[in-house]
Amino acid sequence: MPLSAVIEARGLSKVFQTTVRQPGLAGALRSLVSPRRVDKVAVQDVDFSVGRGELLALLGPNGAGKSTTIKMLTGILTPTSGEALVAGVVPHRDRERNAHNIGAVFGQRTQLWWDLPARESFEILRDIYGVPEERFRERIEEFDGLLELSEFWDTRVRHLSLGQRVRCDLAASLLHDPPVVFLDEPTIGMDVVVKEQVRRFLRHQVEERDRTVLLTTHDMTEVERLAERVVLINHGRIVLDGSLQEIRRRFGGTWQVRATLADPADVEAVEQGEGVGGPVPLPGFAGIGVLRREGPRVVFGPVGEDAPTVHEALKVIIGRFRVADLALEENDLEDVMRAAYLSDVPAQKGQHQATVASASNPASTAGRPTSTSAPVGDSASDSASTPQGG
Ligand SMILES: Nc1ncnc2c1ncn2[C@@H]1O[C@H](COP(=O)(O)OP(=O)(O)OP(=O)(O)O)[C@@H](O)[C@H]1O
């Protein structure tokens, strides 16, 4: 656990009790008289922590348990077992203190007053949280600068468009300057321009204001733009806790680097390692092999479970060879995530670092590679290392 952990979940679990309706009229009557209850395990034994000034994306397919986790961390739900600690407060035990420490936006709902203009909602929140007038004005100015709120400042919340309403909600959630922010699908349904505006706003909050942000989203561009670390959850359990690079390495193992080697001696050296079938490991190049050679053009690919990402491989290749021309291909993040969701291998407790989920090369089923061509020379590494993704 990082020393400066602001959000901590330890063995966090939530089991819902639901009633099952039996079929037919007789069944319906029986269900009314003696309802049959079943347990629905929504979150199971979840451990993770988020440090100060860190933005963590909690990812997973529909029904994975993301919202339930956020609801336990915001104090809306009481965990069935395990512990949650947010800025030193147990959320469900001390909701009031927790409310002062956190801001929360649930993209589908609003905390604003439906029949009041946005301006008045903000004034009510200012009074609820006891924000001094001076601070209130400063913050509104900051939020307006980043989110352009003043153009719909006097519009009733019920008449705001989705993008306008969520921008107001974001600003409202930060009016009391909380160190921790929970965002459950904040940009759902927004157009690309507004999404980018919201992302800039969030980056500003993390980088300039040192806030700790926990975000859920199904938008992979958002993840690529915002999150250095992700926690992947499926069927209520953590599958992986690591960087996007690690997710790519684990679930998106297919990539190719096609390099035209300028030095015939290098081509010769590579030739010696060439073989038939899968990539042949190159001695001294951990996890990188030769897929095929076409004259001076060599196609490199990943070898084994611990193969590097395409960008790591690229660095090694251009560091080792004089390269006249190169191109790279990799699966886009949506494909990688699809493979990760389908792999469905939960981590063993206490072991959920990037090495845990041993999917049997799920990425081989993922398609649609993206490709980038990079010019060569001094600019090669720059262009090539501009990630298309992770
Ligand atoms: N109040 C509830 N009663 C019973 N089951 C629930 C309740 N809330 C959530 N669940 C179940 O718990 C599981 C996790 O739901 P949750 O909303 O946390 O998923 P999610 O990862 O946020 O999904 P999505 O991406 O679709 O929003 C689902 O199977 C859901 O049906």
From TrEMBL:
Membrane topology term: Peripheral membrane protein
Signal sequence: where?
A: none
Extract the ranges annotated as region (Disordered): 348-390
Classification via PROSITE patterns: ABC_TRANSPORTER_2
Q: Which UniProt keywords apply?
A: Antibiotic resistance, ATP-binding, Nucleotide-binding, Transport
Q: Which InterPro entries match?
A: AAA+_ATPase (IPR003593), ABC_transporter-like_ATP-bd (IPR003439), ABC_transporter_ATP-binding (IPR050763), P-loop_NTPase (IPR027417)
Chief location of this protein within or outside the cell? membrane
- Extent of Polar residues compositional bias: 350-390
Q: Where in the cell is it found?
A: Cell membrane
**GO MF annotation, one:** ATP binding
SUPFAM superfamilies, sorted? P-loop containing nucleoside triphosphate hydrolases
Q: Which residues form the ABC transporter domain?
A: 20-260
Q: What is this protein called?
A: ATP-binding cassette domain-containing protein
